[in-house]
Design goal:
By secondary structure, the chain is an alpha/beta fold. It has helices spanning 31-40, 58-61, 76-86, 93-112, 145-158, 233-241, 270-274, 300-314, 328-334, 336-344, 400-419, 443-460, 467-490, 495-516, 534-537; strands at 20-27, 46-49, 66-67, 127-128, 138-139, 163-166, 169-174, 191-196, 201-212, 245-246, 251-258, 278-280, 319-322, 354-363, 366-368, 380-382, 387-388, 542-543.
Amino acid sequence: MCDSSGLPELNAGYIMNEAIKTDVLVIGSGIGGLYFALHAAEYASVTIITKKESSTSNTNWAQGGIAATIDSNDSPELHIADTLDAGAGLCNIDMVSLMVKDGPQHIERLIELGVNFTTSNADILHLGKEGGHSRHRIVHAKDVTGREVENALLDRINSHPNITLLEHHYAIELLTEHHLGIKTNDITCYGAYVLDSMQRQPKKILAKITMLASGGLGHVYPYTTNPEIATGDGVAMGYRAGAEIANMEFIQFHPTSLYHPHAKSFLVSEAVRGFGGILKLKNGQPFMQKYDKRLNLAPRDIVARAIDSEIKKSGEECVFLDVTHIDPDKTKEHFPNIYETCLSFGIDMTREMIPVVPAAHFSCGGLRTDDLGKTTLERLYACGEASCNGVHGANRLASNSLLEALVFSWRAALDVEKKLHHLTNSVDFPDWDDTGTMSPEEWILVSHNKREAQQVMNDYVGIVRSDLRLQRAKRRIDFLKEETEAYYKKTRITTQILELRNIIKVASLIIEGAMKRRESRGLHYTTDYPQKDDRHFLVDTVLRSF
């Protein structure tokens, strides 16, 4: 149950087990959370919670790789310049410099941890090239880089004596003074209320430090390359707790997801275009020359808008990615997973063009953090896609996401080590209260509201926006929020209800950010303000609940 502020009302309620106490609580099991946990476990007890199985994450689905300047023909300065160019003027150059210059050491560390990256002759790392990059600098494990990194990290996590990993545990809310009835602007996080979805029982996890590494928000939209767990939980929880949220309007749509009724927006990696793939219309005509001199290797925002424009002009449902001119054996060698997946849907990518459409892929916004991963709440850190530290600006450069998660989760672990021995986790929080609630009955409301929210976001807050579309979206999302909150207050919590609530909250934040930015920049394009406005909008869009 919740009061009018959206915070849970707490008194009696569920019969709970004793609170779990840990030095460090990590919410999420992607690359950022696992890498942070491994480092923090060298000096602290660590508890990791994850919504589903430990390997279910955006990291595990990442195909492309990790951008790093390790080639003699490359330099940090070139990587920085490419990142700033993609970010459309909104990147924090100090953060970008930190990320790029620290990157190579973390590639070495991953190799030490057992990650088997693809090599060329003489065991030299093979470097790919993707859209927006001026050099070959993408370290990868064929086209399953995320899975390879995730598995290597999980092997170390599962054997570490200081780490406890709890699967099927869903974070409900962050624990702060507000749950004690104390109203303050200097908010501290003491852990989280968590739902054990297998036992259907809430728990308290008290922690000296909490790391939000909960991943992305792709399922705010109906078509996404993200796994089903990506419902923006960390951003929603952080906002409700009072943390500052930044740049939620910048949603990256991956230009090339597989268009097939049963493919669930399977991602066809940017590396396929870096390998020589050409975007074409149904009649076989290329079209990227009309939009950017970099053609098929233009940054993702440009390519996604180009595809969106061509689809609307032609009336077709998709465009096509053509690699039939490339040696079939080389295609199969470099992209075995993509090749086999396409083949399972009856598409031989070595002989026929791949049908593709844009799909929601990555959020450049999130909990506002500094160079050490600290949020605006005491003892709360964030990393990866749940965070916003200024690295990506208005548009993420391809393969900078895993790099960012590595660098800033590691920096956070170093900062936590310095302060942990000064902290306690002895605050006595009350149990979660479900007094007066009922078992969920109206499942049709949950599923309907989720579908409607996703469709509203797709229709009105997609690749191309306008004032009218955003106003319509706000009215509909506000209504869904009111209806969902009323249901939430009277119903025992389930993962489905929690996800719906978070999806709607994040949708409202994306709309609010988009309405505040009255210009077009990077991933935010509006027909009412089609130009960049550096005079008024060369700043982050910051949102806070109170």
